């Protein structure tokens, strides 16, 4: 592989990496700001990633517009979000999120999005966790998909190019740490593509695909995290991965909080109730279900639900390594009241909730950590590189208030899009990415040459990473589990670059993707090893107590001298920054 193997060159002012809600908002805002924009989507646009496939009974977008309760306003949204994550999140980013979310809601309405409305014409707004007042807005139960579709409609009207099946795997920078372009690989034609662009936006979601089971689609392998790490950028709060229960087969259906209010019966592979001998005296199964929300948390007795599912899946599994779910007796009316959408979705997949038992397990749903951004525009230490959506870090700590994720995508997608366009249009000369591209491709050529006699399977290695993360870094974590995962991940990475894997041009992108999986998994595992306490979605069975005295601080991971290193990070207050 060499410079002459570049099959195509594409010129653009702004390259948006990703195709979900944040990426689409970024692309549209950059286009509206006057830039030439392209989107590069790893799979099929509108059919892959989190936004396109998201589902839950409570899926919504949060904004303090006061339609649910006129007492709500952005300052209260800010205070609620800070309460959920103080010490772990950037107050300036949260302030901006709370104050700009209403405007982004009205943008979507102007584009034609029909939010659910009250008879008086105001929007229906619901309560969510950590909220003082109802502030989540919904669209017919599938809010995320409707947001994406309305953005896509406008993008298509503007004839903004979308490069599908295009995996961006390398951002090119010059000696001034400034973006000059990006390398992509077209997965259908096996062609190398060079993007000549001064501005790149990472809005390519999280790393759900590094777990055995995850929402979204399997192509979510943490590419944004890995590329940022390779550039030397810091990542923050990576140990906080939101995980929770879902129906696993024939495809994943998330089981959100309302589902558990119907008191289902859970049994292991031997037919035994999963809670037998588990609950402490005075705690009932009904109480566990009453407290359950998505995702897993150590903060209340719902802790016993998720940990019991993992233990029974390991010790007394069903035929496919899960536990059985069956509706509770006499709960038909409860099911219709609490989980009508879930019932319909399960039926569309061949599961009749009234009569069938089915297998459930734990799935990865959201990365609360990400690439640390410097400000509301999603800027990074690399000039011309912006980050938005789930790829960005600094807005989500141990907990993530309901509805904030979709709001983040719209607020920071818009900001990153507008800022990147302004940056690109200010550049007097088009960047020259050839020197950096040639150096990168020479390195990949050496890798391929070294791998000419490799025999290990890339696919088998990727599957082993997913199984390892499912076993060792799910909801039950410990020094033993995490250390084993770290050692295996480091060993695989060494073998990958020592030529032990079978890699040629046809397997090149799979090999790069495996490396991105390994980097993303290591970021999570190392952060989880470092945090020696239990807090919200991070449970260490060897350190089961929450420790506010020593651990109300973030862990930041960064590449230094070729090594993955950690440091503690204390967020400045808004007052200190303004002072």
Automatic annotation (TrEMBL):
Q: Name one Pfam family in it.
A: FAD_binding_2
What name goes with this protein?
FAD-binding protein
UniProt keyword terms in alphabetical order: Flavoprotein, Oxidoreductase
Cellular component, GO, one term? plasma membrane
List each copy of the Fumarate reductase/succinate dehydrogenase flavoprotein-like C-terminal domain by range.
465-563
Domain named FAD-dependent oxidoreductase 2 FAD-binding: which ranges?
13-406
- SUPFAM superfamilies linked: FAD/NAD(P)-binding domain, Succinate dehydrogenase/fumarate reductase flavoprotein C-terminal domain
Q: What is the lineage of its organism?
A: Bacteria, Bacillati, Bacillota, Bacilli, Bacillales
Which Gene Ontology BP terms does the record give? anaerobic respiration
Any one GO molecular function term: electron transfer activity
